Amino acid sequence: MPRVEPVTGEESRDPRDRAAPAPPPPARFQRLRPALEATRSRTSPRWRGLRWLRVPGYVVVCWIALAIALANTDHMGRYNLGTDLEVLTGFAQGAAVVLALWRPVPAWALSLAGTVVAAVAARPTLQGHPLPGPAWPWNITEVTAHAIVFLLLALRVRTRVSFAVLVGTAVTTWVIQGLIGGATYTSTGLGSVAVFAAVVIVGAAFRGLGEARTQLVEQETITAEERARRTLLEERNRIARELHDVVAHHMSVISIQAQVAPHLVDNPSEELKENLAGIRENALEALTELRRVLGVLRSENPEDPYGLGAAGTGTAPDTPQPTLDRLDALIDNTRAAGLQVVAEVHGEARGYPPGVQLSAYRIVQEALSNALRHAPGSSVRVGITHDPRGVHLEVTNSRPGPVRPSPGAGHGLLGMRERAAMLGGHVTAHPTLHGGFTVSAFLPKDSAAPPPADTPGTPEGLELIFPDDPPPTKGRSTKGTAPPTEEGTP
């Protein structure tokens, strides 16, 4: 087998070609950034997936805004401000209500500015007005509009921002009413600020409740995932204990008996010694492989059951794993078991990640094991092709001999497909036109690489039959007809 080249790292670059990092912003701007981010409109996580439910609410708010604009325009007419100013201040409140759906803080500023302009413009009208004077500086429509803006703002921004703008409204009201003042009016400043404070408290409470529920759901999800992970790890540890206590014991006994057996026979033949040595060697190899399996089962990464490492990283497990360099020993071992195997290698290995090498070895190993079980007496061709995208594997056996094949458990091909899929590759298996069976696989060097376009498929007119699949139930109809297969064909 060709020597596997090590993975080469990224070429060094000239430091002069790298762009100089941007200087960090001043500390005062870093402290201001969270507050600026908090003023952006936020949609509660509970409603992000239910956008269509917000449409009726938008329509209702727009109708309320129009009603407020018309009512406020009519109310401003009592102060003789002029048509232009009356319409401007009236529709400013309606526009603020609509704007609060997306930008609540600018909407608050617009509503407050409209109130200030209207209050200052109406001050001359209050001179000499008989008692009791009109409501000032907040009228009923302005209070309604500003309260709606506060409610939408409290539902969307952080609580500290809501109370900050509430303080801004209170200070502005005090300045207008205390410093500017009017001649004769009914003060609405204190009552309006009290209403706004109540609205902010209610909105902040609802926002906090929604955030608490969202965090609770997230925590429950994390808890459920951890519980499932712990259950899976416990089950895998239980399986590892059973394998260690049962399989490892029997394999150790087989190895010891194969080592002692030649000494129990007078003048054992060389052929008997070689067979017993092969049995002991295979038993020891099985014990080594079993230790690797136990290490994978006892690992704390259930997302990587085959020990392939993170996808695309080429991370190898802690214990040594078989690589493409060991395929020669695997093929020789299969030949010693009585199977004629011919290996063909095209191209050179291109520094595959450990996960790719391990999967390639396991796929060839499982395909040869299937040929031993299901096609005894056949000849097998193992083809390995290296190209820039990855490695192609093909294991084809001829028509089996008259020896009855052994049954399978039904998990071999499934394991091959899972291994390849975890690396972004694929595995196909189908009978050949001459009564044999072919297993083809492609494993990309990079998990992001696309599979080749000329992937092998099932020959037309042949039923897809896998060696490990159970026989079909009698009487079940299948689409199309398949040629009869002789007993022993995988």
How would you summarize what this structure contains?
This protein has helices at 27-38, 54-76, 83-99, 104-126, 140-156, 159-180, 189-260, 270-297, 327-336, 354-374, 412-422; strands at 135-136, 186-187, 340-346, 379-387, 390-397, 426-431, 437-444.
Order of helical and strand elements: HHHHEHHEHHHEHEEHEE
Please outline the major beta sheet: 5 strands, mixed
Q: What is the global morphology?
A: rod-shaped
Spatial order of the strands in the main sheet?
3-4-5-7-6
How many discrete domains? 2
Portion in beta strands:
5-15%
Note poorly predicted spans.
Answer: 1-26, 28-32, 35-50, 309-317, 450-490
Report how far apart the termini are: 28 Å
What radius of gyration results from the CA coordinates?
40 Å
Helix and strand content put the structural class at alpha/beta
Give the mean pLDDT: 75
Number of helices, where a helix is a run of at least 4 consecutive DSSP H or I residues = 11
Number of strands: 7
Helix content: 40-55%
